[in-house]
């Protein structure tokens, strides 16, 4: 008997079955990522309800896709990114458009935008397989979401063309390396590159075909969350460097969970990023100001972070987060319309997906304390939840430092912003000692230019009116020749329209040193326009900082009375000398008419009377008090 025909038939049937199963695995239910059919149906209705959050987001998205001139940025340094954003938003519009013709039109716009990025890269030849890992990741994320959301509308040729490029990129990603990706995985590069690759793999339904790589991506993302972020969600790289990588990390967390794997989700639950956002992000009408930490600038493009966080908030806290969101980023924000709703960098797709339309907003006032503290020594305080007049203050210890990631020394670092003005800010990526808001020793602070030296946590407490925190100088101040160093921060927000923020530095050394309380007026760019005036009160040094909206910070140096006070190089400095020192500074933040203060007593027994409150150091309690 001739077995050849039967063998050929069996081989043909086996191959057909394999291809059928592979196709089924690749197609499956679409969209696979982030969205369900039920949610798409809900969104189609919501975007057509006049005046709602979703309707406003939808109209802004249509304007960006239909009217904004993408080509004006052709071949500039962020052109590959802009293509990725446009493709992602066009893909979302293709899901939500009213009729099939419009859905097809937006799907074709998304396809043509991706195709152009494949065939006509920028002058640095950045594609999903070449060039910077950060650019590869951005294009991978944009391509993944676009492919997933347009899959049912594209024809076979369009799907095949994009899928081929996705497979090429997935084949190339394992060979990409960078020093920032090495142990301990703290750098934002980990979340960006590995998150971008993960989303591409999930969109292509390749996680089973590439099982080892899938497990490795998960391992690196879990390690990154565990090492890079404390329980509050703070990273040593800064608030902005939680947001930027978070735009890649959280979609990966949500997508794997939707597909039945909750390993990343379980790790993400250990970090309260949403709470950090509520205490560090301002309500303002110029840009997205937030408390400056790490090397981050004081505002950022966001990557959809604030909208993504909706999906991490506990159900019983969602109303408070929605209240915050509406004023910081949403429909009650004072920012220009095209900047609201995570309008930068295609983050608005998440403003549609995750905004909880059925949850009523709740004012956090009287419910939340005025401050929160993290496990690695960052403490943030906020006086109210109203508008751009809200005051924010912070104190950092930075108890851990991880290599292969951006870092700044931050022990004793303070921030103060209110009325759309950053009165006291951080150094950003600047490394010169003159840029830090901290305590200098003999004019020095950043001893090794790496940010490796750390401090220690002290006390932290906060109720609905007042907050208090201390940090110890730790390794950083020992490196500066200091035996003992403690910084106190007291906030009295019992009268939010005139908030009191006070600091006390207590330091000791074996030899005489110069001690300098220094405040960087503004931020690393010095663009907040803070004006400083030296204004003594009786025999005590004092100062006035003036900002936007007729705002001020009135400061008194209660001790030492003979401290030298000057303003130079965009910094305010209070200086004294000796083997030990106590520097007590009280600041009142407000707007309009300047307050009149009255000073009584001498030395550390000095009492400042301002408004109807008395501020002083209580030796029995060992802290600053306001009564």
How is this structure best described in words?
The chain is of the alpha+beta class and 627 residues long. It folds into 2 domains: 48-353, Chondroitin AC/alginate lyase (Glycosyltransferase, Alpha/alpha barrel), CATH 1.50.10.100; 371-585, Beta-galactosidase, Chain A, domain 5 (Distorted Sandwich), CATH 2.70.98. It has helices at 4-27, 37-46, 53-66, 79-96, 100-119, 133-150, 156-172, 188-203, 211-228, 240-258, 263-268, 273-280, 305-308, 318-328, 348-353, 474-479; strands spanning 371-373, 378-382, 392-396, 414-418, 421-425, 438-441, 456-462, 466-472, 484-492, 499-521, 531-534, 542-546, 551-559, 564-568, 571-591, 597-600, 607-610, 613-618, 623-626. The protein has a 15-stranded antiparallel sheet that branches. A 4-stranded antiparallel sheet has the order 16-17-18-19, with no helix packed on it. It starts with a helix and ends with a strand. Residues 6-25 and 72-77 have low confidence and may be disordered.
Keywords:
627 residues; alpha+beta; Glycosyltransferase; Beta-galactosidase, Chain A, domain 5; 2 domains; 15-stranded antiparallel sheet; 4-stranded antiparallel sheet; 22% strand; elongated
């Amino acid at each position: 008997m001739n077995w050849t025909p039967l063998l050929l038939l069996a081989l043909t049937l086996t191959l057909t079955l394999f291809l059928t199963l592979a196709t089924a695995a690749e197609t499956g239910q679409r969209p696979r990522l982030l969205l369900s059919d039920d949610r798409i149906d809900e969104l189609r209705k919501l975007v057509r309800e006049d005046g709602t959050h979703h309707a406003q987001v939808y109209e802004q998205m249509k304007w960006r896709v239909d009217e904004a001139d993408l080509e004006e940025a052709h071949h500039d340094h962020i052109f590959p990114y802009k293509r990725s954003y446009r493709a992602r938003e066009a893909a979302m519009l293709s899901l939500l458009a009213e009729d099939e013709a419009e859905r097809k039109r937006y799907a074709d716009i998304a396809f043509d935008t991706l195709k152009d990025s494949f065939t006509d890269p920028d002058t640095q030849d950045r594609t999903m397989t070449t060039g910077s890992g950060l650019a590869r990741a951005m294009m991978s994320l944009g391509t993944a979401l676009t492919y997933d959301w347009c899959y049912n509308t594209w024809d076979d040729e369009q799907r095949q063309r994009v899928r081929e490029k996705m497979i090429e990129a997935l084949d190339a990603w394992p060979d990409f390396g960078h020093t920032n990706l090495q142990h301990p995985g703290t750098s934002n590069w980990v979340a960006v590159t590995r998150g971008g690759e993960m989303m591409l793999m999930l969109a292509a339904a390749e996680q089973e075909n590439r099982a080892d790589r899938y497990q490795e991506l998960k391992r690196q993302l879990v390690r990154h969350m565990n090492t890079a972020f404390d329980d509050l969600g703070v990273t040593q790289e800064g608030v902005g460097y939680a947001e930027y990588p978070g735009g890649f990390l959280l979609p990966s967390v949500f997508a794997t969970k939707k597909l039945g794997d909750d390993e990343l989700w379980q790790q993400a639950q250990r970090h309260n990023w949403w709470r950090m956002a509520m205490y560090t992000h301002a309500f303002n009408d110029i840009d997205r100001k937030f408390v400056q930490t790490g090397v981050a600038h004081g505002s950022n493009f966001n990557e959809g972070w604030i909208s993504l966080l909706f999906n991490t908030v506990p159900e019983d806290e969602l109303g408070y987060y929605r209240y915050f969101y509406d004023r910081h980023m949403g429909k009650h924000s004072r920012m220009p319309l095209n900047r609201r709703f995570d309008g930068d960098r295609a983050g608005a797709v998440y403003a549609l997906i995750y905004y909880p339309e059925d949850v009523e907003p709740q004012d956090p006032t009287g419910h939340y304390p005025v401050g929160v503290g993290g496990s690695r020594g960052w403490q943030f305080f906020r006086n109210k939840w109203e508008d751009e007049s809200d005051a924010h203050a912070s104190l950092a210890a930075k108890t851990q430092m991880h290599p292969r990631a951006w870092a700044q020394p931050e022990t004793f670092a303070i921030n103060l912003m209110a009325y759309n003005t950053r009165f006291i800010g951080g150094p950003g990526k600047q490394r010169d000692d003159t840029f830090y808001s901290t305590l200098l020793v003999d004019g020095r602070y950043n001893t090794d230019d790496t940010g490796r030296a750390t401090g220690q946590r002290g006390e932290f407490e906060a109720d609905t009116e007042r907050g208090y925190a201390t940090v110890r100088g730790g390794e950083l101040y020992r490196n500066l020749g200091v035996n003992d160093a403690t910084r106190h921060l007291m906030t009295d927000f019992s009268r939010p329209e005139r908030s009191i923020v006070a600091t006390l530095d207590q330091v000791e050394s074996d030899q005489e040193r110069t001690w300098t309380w220094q405040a960087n007026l503004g931020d690393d760019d010095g663009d907040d326009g803070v004006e400083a005036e030296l204004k003594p009160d009786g025999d005590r040094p004092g100062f006035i900082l003036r900002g936007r909206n007729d705002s001020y910070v009135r400061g008194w140096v209660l001790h030492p009375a003979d401290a030298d006070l000057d303003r130079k190089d965009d910094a305010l400095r209070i200086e004294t000398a000796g083997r030990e020192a106590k520097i007590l500074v009280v600041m009142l933040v407000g707007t309009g008419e300047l307050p009149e203060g009255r000073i009584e007593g001498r030395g550390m027994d000095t009492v400042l009377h301002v408004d109807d409150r008395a501020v002083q150091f209580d030796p029995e309690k060992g802290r600053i008090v306001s009564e």
